[in-house]
Amino acid sequence: MGDSTCSTNVDPRIRVLLIDDDEPTLELTTLLLERRGFYVITAPDVETAFRVVLDDAPQVAVTDLEMPGLDGFDFRDAIELSGATFPVLAVSGAADSRTLARARAAGFDAVLAKPCSSDLLAAALYRALGVTAPAEARLD
Question: What CA–CA distance (Å, rounded) separates 86 from 67?
Answer without folding.
Answer: 21
